Amino acid sequence: MAPGGLRADSRGGDEVHERWLRLLNRSTGDPGYRDEWFDEQCGGCKFWIALSGELGLDWGVCAHAGSAFDGQVRFEHDGCEGFFARADGTFG
To answer: Are 20 and 61 in contact (CB under 8 A)?
Structure first.
């Protein structure tokens, strides 16, 4: 169980999701979002490791030593310059 008793699959997951959305590097809603970034989102990166529980449906940890986000929780639709596509083409 996480500090404060919050489990990733509890009702508090919505609050965590909304709070973590402020961490985005690239938001698909931003006017400057590039078309090619739709194919380079964290959820499709070979270095993205999904969290367990409800939050794992949208959130994972970056494990790319060359990324500025290594070791940090990332939204599956976020992205960075260190993107490396999964060999099998899966997402999430």
So the answer is: no
Residue 35 CA: distances (Å) to CA of 63, 87, 90:
25, 21, 19
The H-or-E segment that residue 74 falls in is strand 73-75
Nearest to 73 by CA among 91, 59, 55: 59
Q: What is the average per-residue pLDDT within 32-41?
A: 95
Burial of residue 82, with CB atoms counted within 10 A of its CB: 0-12 exposed, 13-18 middle, 19 or more buried: middle
pTM score of the predicted model: 0.81
pLDDT on residue 75: 96
Residue whose structure tokens are 């939050």: 55
Q: How far is CA 38 from CA 12, 42, 83, 89, in A?
A: 29, 10, 12, 14
Say what the pLDDT of residue 10 is.
52
